[in-house]
Design goal:
The chain has helices at 15-29, 38-43, 88-102, 117-122, and strands spanning 5-10, 48-54, 57-66, 72-79, 107-113, 126-134, 137-145. By secondary structure, it is an alpha+beta fold. It binds coenzyme A.
Length: 148
Amino acid sequence: MTQHLEICEVAHGSPEYWETADLRNRVLRQPIGLKFSPEDIEAEKHYRHFACYFGDRLAACLMLDPLENGDIRMRQLAVLPELQRQGVGKSLVAHAEEWARKAGYRRMTLHARETAVTFYEALGYSRGGARFEEVTIQHWAMDKRLTI
Ligand SMILES: CC(C)(COP(=O)(O)OP(=O)(O)OC[C@H]1O[C@@H](n2cnc3c(N)ncnc32)[C@H](O)[C@@H]1OP(=O)(O)O)[C@@H](O)C(=O)NCCC(=O)NCCS
């Protein structure tokens, strides 16, 4: 199915952005009893938003957050539950890494939920530091050097 995926950047505040926010809400927030606050939405103005479509259906999304130290941080990767474990997440992350590499970033960082660590390791990310709690669940800091 991955050859039928289309990935593009979407603008904060556009209808496509709100669709990604809804997917992140359903996949990441609702299961742990969280909701988006107006402050969350405001903070996301500074991120780059990527959407992955399977036909006319939103299949996955993520955000990239340019950091002051010159790294870039991947945030809130979410794949539609019925399309998980079919290569969608891997394709979207590869696209985001390529975008970041071309934009001059040399390192991608992220906070991985413990349940997603194996996924990120399969994509070449390494754990750094100790496990910590964020939004009520255990996470690991992970990163990957973006080679040219
Ligand atoms: C975690 C998530 C983003 C992975 O995306 P996906 O589309 O399901 O994963 P892919 O099919 O692209 O998997 C890529 C590789 O990682 C492996 N993998 C994926 N999910 C895995 C898991 N939960 N456990 C172990 N391995 C996993 C796959 O086997 C695959 O390896 P392969 O290419 O050798 O077959 C997706 O399942 C998801 O949205 N989960 C819920 C939300 C979440 O946890 N987001 C991340 C927050 S940090």
